[in-house]
Structure formats: C-alpha cells, structure tokens
Amino acid sequence: MSDLNTCVILKSRPIGIPTPEYFDIIEKPIASLSDGQVLVRTDYWSVEPAMRGWVNDAPNYSPPVPIGDVMRSFATGEVIKSRDANFAVGDQVTGLFGWQTHAVVDGTTISRKITETDLPNSLALGVLGINGVTAYCGFLDLCQPTSGETVVVSTAAGAVGSAVGQLAKIHGCRTIGITSSAAKIDQCKNDFGFDEAISYKSPDFKTELTSTLPDGVDCYFDNTSGDISDAVMCHLALNARITICGTAAHSDWDPIPMGPRVHRQMLVARAKMQGFLVFDHKERFPHAINALANWVRDGSLKYNEHILDGPAAATDAIGMLYRGENTGKLLVRV
Ligand SMILES: NC(=O)c1ccc[n+]([C@@H]2O[C@H](COP(=O)([O-])OP(=O)(O)OC[C@H]3O[C@@H](n4cnc5c(N)ncnc54)[C@H](OP(=O)(O)O)[C@@H]3O)[C@@H](O)[C@H]2O)c1
C-alpha cells in the first residue's frame, strides 16, 4: 500500500462557481489511526451542485470548507485499517470522506456500509445515495403525488431530476421534464420515460410549457429557481405542491436575484411550497435506499453516470455541473 494520501485541497475562496485555479492537488503522508478511527481507501468521489455553497463564504446550511482543507465530498471506498469495532477491513462504505485517496475518519463519519453487493458501489453516491434519497423524500414525502397528477421537474436529465421523474411515473403521474439540450430531451424521454421534455433554452419555452400543461401543474419539483420556475408558477393547479430543492439557475447569491412575486398564483391555487434539505431526513434513508434499490433491480428506476478519471479532473468538475456538461451523476473515479 502507498503511504501517501493524494488530496484535492481548497486553495483560495471562490466567488461564485469554483474553477480549477481555486484548487491544488497535494500528497501527504497517511495519518496514523487513533481509537475509533478507520482508514478508507476511496474509489469514487461525488460531485454535487451543493459544493459551490460549501466553498463560498455565503450564508448556507453548513460552514464553508476552510482554506487549505481537503475538499468536502461524499465518497465510496473500502476500509483498509480499522480501530472501530463496528467496521472491519474489507467493508465497503460511503460517507463524507472528501476528495482524497486515503481518508482517516472517525467511524461516525461513515454514513453506512454498502450492502447492495449485487449493484455497483458507485450507486451509493447517486441513485442509492444523496440524489436518490433527495428524489424519494423531497418528492414522495413532500409532494405526496397521486396517480393521474401532472408533475413538472427541472434539471430533469440530471441525477436528482431523472429519479424524481421516474418515481412520479412509478406512482402513475404524467411527467414533464425541463432541461437544456436536444440530447438531454432525448435522454429524458427515452432513458427516463418522461411523457414530455422541453428545453428552457428554446425561444418558445413558455409556449411549449403551456401546451404541455392543459390541466396545470399538480407537483413542481424545483431544482433551478429563476426564469424556469417563474414560468412554471404561472400554471399551478388547485392544491399544487412545490418542493424547493435547488437553485441551479442563480449564478450569483449576493444579492439573491428577485423574481416575479408568486403570492397571487399560490393564493389562487391554494398551493403549498416547501424548502427541502436532504440531511433533515436521515431517519428515512434506510427505507428510501431499500425501496430505490428494489426499483433499480426490477428495471423501473434507471440511472446514468458521468465518470471522470483521476484527481485532476475533480478541479473543474463543479464548473461542469453549472455549464450543464454532465450527462448523468457526476463522479470522479480514483
Ligand atoms: N436540497 C437538497 O437537499 C439537495 C440534495 C441534492 C441535490 N439538490 C439539488 O438538486 C439539483 C440537481 O442536483 P444533481 O446533483 O442531480 O445535479 P445534476 O442535475 O446532475 O447536474 C446539475 C444540472 O443543473 C443544470 N443547470 C446548471 N446550470 C443551470 C442553469 N443556469 N439553469 C438551469 N439549469 C442549470 C444542468 O442541467 P441542464 O443541462 O438541464 O441545464 C446540470 O446538468 C441541484 O440544484 C442541487 O443543488 C438539492
């Protein structure tokens, strides 16, 4: 075993979307273990839109990654040394290990042992990880869709959006996906079974949206905010439910751009809108992961992965998400 840990560290504080110059790749000796700690050799690192918030010094739900620290991220890997009786050498695990090849962590940092040994480990970062659980809790628990309802999803071709669309189909809903390009429209319809998919970049976006919504929107799973959401909010059906899951369309958070006021549409539709953070729903994770894994196994829940190779690729990976260049759950293979 190499006794060096290759890490991607945050070099300086980005403003807006972090680009490669804000990161450095360094090697340092692997730390020795104290009681209660394990050494995990990582095999996949996750890339999330939320990382932009984790490195920026703007008000958020967690403190920013300190300058000089390993970039915070979820990862999968194998326990190769253990001083925690709950974990044995050889266990496959996932947790907040960071963008580093060898993570010495407290056992409490491990989110779970990966028990779906019939499925690829990388799924624990996507459809059986934060993305899938976000779709499960953020859509099924908050929107409580019923058969025959119309569901609109933004970032529909992405890791969270594609899962929301498929969960909606599993529950008998009609699904409309919003994405950027012709290739992703094709992915939404042919890979993920959306009934309709449209591009927010089309000059006719608002007309196309209107024509897909003759009876309005019962559930809107909002991953973008911005002009896309302003357009969707004009079509709320009676008793509509809206999950605010992400704000990918905001290029700047300081100040947060103000859009049209939605109070009139909400009042007329007697709609309910709720902000969602997946980490508030930890008690639901085992149930959600079990259900999601069974849908993956029976073929009713499909996923795409977009895999980059090696630590250097990680430094531009967050930018890729905000340029819409990913064609599935974005991962770095170590
Ligand atoms: N609240 C929570 O607990 C939670 C947890 C996980 C994820 N999320 C949110 O869920 C959303 C999707 O995350 P993901 O991991 O599944 O990423 P993803 O959808 O796989 O990738 C991000 C996508 O965002 C879209 N995008 C980027 N810039 C945009 C813009 N200016 N306007 C509209 N769309 C834009 C791009 O898709 P197009 O090519 O379609 O533009 C890009 O592919 C994000 O907003 C994320 O923050 C929230």
Defining traits:
single chain; 334 residues; alpha/beta; Quinone Oxidoreductase, Chain A, domain 1; Rossmann fold; 2 domains; 7-stranded mixed beta sheet; 6-stranded parallel beta sheet; globular; binds NADP nicotinamide-adenine-dinucleotide phosphate
Structural features, described:
By secondary structure, this protein is of the alpha/beta class. The protein folds into 2 domains: 4-126 and 304-333, Medium-chain alcohol dehydrogenases, catalytic domain (Quinone Oxidoreductase, Chain A, domain 1), CATH 3.90.180; 130-279, Rossmann fold (3-Layer(aba) Sandwich), CATH 3.40.50.720. The protein is built from 10 helices and 15 strands. The chain has helices at 51-55, 130-143, 159-170, 182-191, 205-212, 226-232, 263-269, 285-297, 311-314, 317-322; strands at 4-10, 23-29, 37-46, 75-82, 92-95, 102-106, 110-113, 150-154, 174-179, 196-199, 217-222, 236-244, 272-275, 305-309, 329-333. It starts with a strand and ends with a strand. The relative contact order is 0.16. NADP nicotinamide-adenine-dinucleotide phosphate (NAP) binds next to helix 2, helix 3 and helix 10.
